Amino acid sequence: MRFVLLSAITALAVWLVTFLPLGVVVDGGETGTWARIGVFLLVGAVMTAANLLIKPIVDVLTLPVKILTLGLFSLVVAWFMLWLTSWLSTLVPWAELTIGGFWETVLAALVISIITAILSAIVPGARRD
């Protein structure tokens, strides 16, 4: 149940970031509103799965660099997770997340992280206990 909540929260965060001029575009689901919502939910689920499964491994591997940069390398890890989500979404023919340049994507990943953190704190059951 927590995965579904986090996927919906992440989908909402990605949807909000698409309104900003950061080069993040979600393609697919042009046939109707529910199809478009499904595309965002799929992108949210892929991003949530990447953050729950792959990000802990990447965090452990990049720990020395994070210590040297006083945690600023976490932005690069967030960029990598967004890039990985973009790459994984290309494997689905009807939903695709397109990202812009490096700095635009770093800023988009930061905004998605902030929105997800705020919404996860507000929505009951989404927080890790």
TrEMBL record:
Domain of life: Bacteria
Sequence intervals crossing the membrane: 35-54, 61-82, 102-123
Keyword field: Membrane, Transmembrane, Transmembrane helix
Keyword Nucleus included in the entry's annotation: no
InterPro entries: Phage_holin_4_2
Pfam family, one: Phage_holin_4_2
Name of the molecule in the record: Phage holin family protein
